[in-house]
Specification:
The protein has 78 residues and is α+β, with helices and mostly antiparallel strands. The protein has helices at 14-32, 58-77; strands spanning 3-9, 40-46, 52-53, 56-57. The longest helix has 20 residues, at 58-77. It starts with a strand and ends with a helix.
């Protein structure tokens, strides 16, 4: 029984998650011949604040990027 675990950021539409589940299931069937009813898919959604790269959460990085953009736009108007 294959168990496929996927970590992804929250916010995707339910239909997109269903497509992902179907595609992963089909891939397991095709790749290893698993019976459809034996394939398990676990989706774990996380907030960008709960994932970090290089010591900075993606939420903090997005905030910093947005702030830089605002400052850049402000300086362009001067």
């Amino acid at each position: 029984m294959p168990i496929i675990e996927v970590n992804l950021f929250e916010g995707r539409a339910p239909e997109a998650k269903e497509r992902l589940i179907q595609a992963l299931t089909n891939a397991a069937i095709e790749a290893i011949g698993a019976p459809r009813e034996s394939v398990r898919v676990i989706l774990r959604e996380m907030a960008p604040a709960h994932f970090a790269v290089g010591g900075q959460s993606l939420a903090a990085k997005a905030t910093a990027t947005a702030q830089s953009k605002v400052e850049e736009d402000w300086s362009d108007e001067s």
